[in-house]
Design a protein that fits this description.
alpha+beta; 41% helix
């Protein structure tokens, strides 16, 4: 699974829910024979892993819905950073 870290690096912008799910789906293609959970199952599982609910774990910003205090580690950014859309941040 893509490696996450507790806080994102300053100045890199927020990690949106859509970016993280896109990276997760590509990771599944690369490592899990293409099987990926639905977006809803993924987000609920991620929130449960952090002991909270999806709504308490996210916030709405000008970038879209973002995860609070969550970012990608350096290796995952290098491997999957190109799966963002123009204008999105990692």
């Amino acid at each position: 699974m893509p490696q996450l870290r507790a806080n994102r690096r300053a100045g890199t912008g927020p990690l949106t829910t859509s970016v993280l799910y896109r990276i997760y789906k590509q990771w599944c293609t690369d490592n899990n024979n293409g099987y990926a959970k639905t977006a809803r199952h993924f987000r609920d599982g991620l929130a449960a892993l952090h002991g909270t609910s999806h709504s308490a774990f996210t916030t709405h910003t000008k970038y879209g819905t973002t995860y609070l205090g969550l970012g990608l580690n350096t290796q995952t950014r290098e491997d999957y950073g190109h799966y963002t859309l123009k204008g999105e941040f990692l």
